[in-house]
Amino acid sequence: MKILIVGASGTIGQAVEANLKAHHEIISANYANGDVKVDLGDPESIRSMFKAVGQVDAVISTAGVAAFSGLDDLTDLDFQTALNNKLMGQINLLRIGKSSINKGGSITLTSGVLSREPMHGSSVISMANGALESFVKAAALEIDSVRFNVVAPVFVKETMAMMGMDTGSGLSANDTAKAYIAAVTGNMHGQTLDAPNYL
């Protein structure tokens, strides 16, 4: 398959690419580097990316920007960035990109466990994640030409270690990647795939 990975330079994106590149053609897309550049917050940038890449069999997004901060410390810009980038950026990958997916192909987006298991500081991320999961579930009722799903990772061990957190409750990026592979190679549609369920 020809697979476009948006956010390929991130911790999860690198693991997804590493697990797929032996058997599939990978095109990497990132904000600052990769085979093609894309700004998720800009619909025209997304259109330009798909125009440059052409038809693909699958799109995987492991991208999306959202602030982690206490509710009283979040600014209007923090909320707008999460809405424009993590939420609408990924929704626009589906809206704009579905016509670039070959028959039988798929689009896989990324939310996160904070949609259903929030914690202090997660309000803006939980908002975007929950909205994305609801969108995918509802949009699947109207679109059946392309399969699309959302993967909900838990905290990634590598990121936790970088932040000085206890990694005991986390999942490695490599194990997290298994949920994305299941979404691409399976037949589910309109589902939220919780990463720990695919070990």
UniProtKB/TrEMBL annotation:
UniProt keyword Amino-acid biosynthesis present: no
Domain of life from the UniProt record: Bacteria
GO terms assigned for molecular function: oxidoreductase activity
Coiled-coil ranges (or none): none
Keyword annotations: Oxidoreductase
Keyword Oxidoreductase set for record: yes
InterPro entries on file: NAD(P)-bd_dom_sf (IPR036291), SDR_DHRS6-like (IPR051122), SDR_fam (IPR002347)
Pfam families: adh_short_C2
Entry similarity comment: Belongs to the short-chain dehydrogenases/reductases (SDR) family.
Name of the protein described by the UniProt record: Short chain dehydrogenase
Organism: Colwellia psychrerythraea (Vibrio psychroerythus)
